[in-house]
Design goal:
By secondary structure, the chain is an alpha+beta fold. It contains six helices and 14 strands. A hairpin with a 2-residue loop joins β9 and β10.
Length: 284
């Protein structure tokens, strides 16, 4: 006898995963624009329009030369994220509504971590604007430098957000440009973490996220431990999920148990490499 109704448990797991995801707060969901994911290992195309040429002024008798509309193809491999739990026969009788909810929660949260790591990796690997900076030099000037990479295209409405590893929290909070009431660009309650938002830098939300945001970089031929401080524009980072996770129950008769396996296909991509500015903050 089945322990779970796959459709219901799958939706619960998916909801738990989406709630636990952090990096998707600064990413765009392309699931509605891409055909249903089918096979792990295949590629998915995040289609992106290439910029047309600049407009020109024309005289009375001049003729315009049309710009051809072209698409920039950004492909990414389809991956699978999965986890499993084994339920002994003696415990199966205890698997009721509340316990099922907790199991879906834990499966979803564990799968979310794997997806967050991939989204963070896509930022670090794909960003055009990257700078390695010592933690002792991580200050307001460094942050403003990361924003300067976008030139005059840094309107608040165009920015998805900032992702920062929590080890940078105290340094950010200590900056006058973030916390001083005398600064016109600071926001009320900056420094008080609410729903993982530390506050706002020039109107851009700062999200604290530790999953996938610590890694190693090479500085002068030496490996250094670094953490991420990344500014992202809207529609720069993208992801796509399978419509519903696959939920399978596999009977382990010799162990008097049942394995419940949850899996989901997904893909991630930094589709606009100039839409992310990254500070790799490292320790000496």
């Amino acid at each position: 006898m089945s322990i779970f109704v796959p459709e219901i448990f799958g939706d619960a797991t998916n909801q738990a995963m989406e709630s636990a995801l952090m990096m998707t707060k600064v990413a765009t969901d392309y699931s509605d624009f891409i055909p249903e994911l089918a096979t792990c290992g295949d590629s998915v195309n995040f289609a992106n329009f290439a910029r047309i040429a600049d407009a020109v002024t024309v005289g009375r008798d001049d003729t315009l030369t049309p710009n051809a509309v072209s698409m920039v193809d950004c492909s990414a491999p389809i991956k699978v994220v999965a986890n499993a739990v084994r339920i002994k026969n003696v415990d199966a009788i205890q698997i009721k509504g509340n316990v099922k909810d907790r199991m879906a929660e834990q499966l979803g949260e564990s799968m979310a971590k794997a997806v967050d790591v991939d989204l963070a990796t896509a930022i670090v690997d794909g960003a055009v604007y990257k700078e390695n900076i010592l933690k002792s030099d991580f200050n307001a000037s460094a942050i403003e430098g990361a924003l300067d990479c976008f030139g005059d295209r840094q309107n608040v409405a165009d920015m998805a957000g900032i992702v920062a590893h929590s080890s940078l929290r105290s340094a950010i909070v200590a900056m006058d440009e973030f916390s001083s009431a005398n600064k016109t660009n600071t926001a009320d309650a900056n420094g008080i973490v609410d729903n993982n938002v530390l506050g706002f830098w020039n109107g851009i939300p700062i999200y604290l996220c530790d999953t996938g945001t610590s890694y190693q970089i090479t500085v002068e031929n030496a490996k250094k431990n670094a953490v991420m401080f990344a500014v992202l524009k809207k529609n720069a980072l993208a992801y796509v999920f399978q419509a519903r996770p696959t939920i399978e129950e596999m009977r382990q008769s010799l162990d008097l148990a049942t394995d419940v396996v949850a899996s989901e296909l997904y893909a991630t991509k930094l589709i606009d490499s100039a839409g992310a500015s990254v500070l790799n903050v490292y320790t000496a």
